[in-house]
What does this fold into?
Amino acid sequence: MITIAQAKKYVKLFFQRADIFLLVLCLICAVISVIAVHHTTHWLAEQNVRAITPTKMVIVQVFSVFLGIGAFVLFTIIDPDILGEQWKWLVLMIVLLLAALFVFGEDDGTGNKSWIRFLGIGIQPSEIIKILYIIISAKQMTVLRQKGDVNSFFAVVQMAAVFGAVFVAIMVVSSDLGNALILLAIFLVMFFALGVKLYWFAIGGAAVAAIIPLAWNYVLKDYQKKRLLAPYNESVDPDGWGIRWQTTQSKLTLASGRLTGADPGHRETVFTGKHTDFIFSSIGEMWGMIGCLIVLTLLIILIIHCFRAGFKAGRTYDMLLCVGIGAAIAFQTFINIGMCIGITPVIGIALPFFSYGGSSMATLFAAMGIVSGVKFKPKPERFIIQYT
It folds into this structure.
């Protein structure tokens, strides 16, 4: 049994060594998210939008925040090296998640088979798979660096093969182009951070350029092609009532907020996704440009903090974990806000820490716990700090 004195000692140790700044930053984002989801879902319910149950959604969001706090603490305490050593089990988890998605997965209304629902609870496996991939890839890249030159043909092929297997599996099982592209961004950033020479990026770019026509003609579905073209070609949906409808409404929503937000009685846009993928537009409507700048600033600080934690870690594996997680948040943020203002395709990417979604919120807190765990664990001998 742990005594009260021991418990106090462990709590004190946690607050001494954990990344408390990161936890506070995540909590600020989460509180804003809960408030935004509360206001947005109640507004949608008042407009008789189907499938909107404000009380339930707010409860889910709040519960996921508390679940996320627990995950943050757990993954802070667990040594990241232990996670990497269990890479075979993590691979098995990815396989099982994809198998479950293949058998039990449901369409989320975007054409993607992205959700598993059980007893009214929805889980999005791709959110978990991204974190598992970062851990597996960080471990693989570290081992390859320890064995020799990461720029050798054999090493590059191994790293590309792991990425390619997960990427293709997500596309085949769920057709989730958005999360597949986030996975690509994670791989490229980790690849670069590892010190792989630029000529391999050129070779990879040439290979992708050769594959794109085949993927366009034989892999991508018509609705995916239209989504990719819509922001740059109005002829895809000239009237704006089809594939471009949500983007048009999103821009109107943002514009209505002006500097400090629109009065509740003057909110006019009603469309699905205002509390999920387009929460940034809803925040702009409620709190104006000032609210949007606050959200963007919080996310930029969070992203920079992840990269900074990685480059201060002192070890390749730790650095790659933090950089991979930072890259995931950075590209999700870019694509989501781009969706809201009409410069990127609408491909079902949530705004990290702000969009409604229990899976996303809890997984992001867990990911931040891994970053905190890099700081929490004992450093290599030349970085040891004595705690009293």
About this structure: The two ends are 23 Å apart (CA to CA).
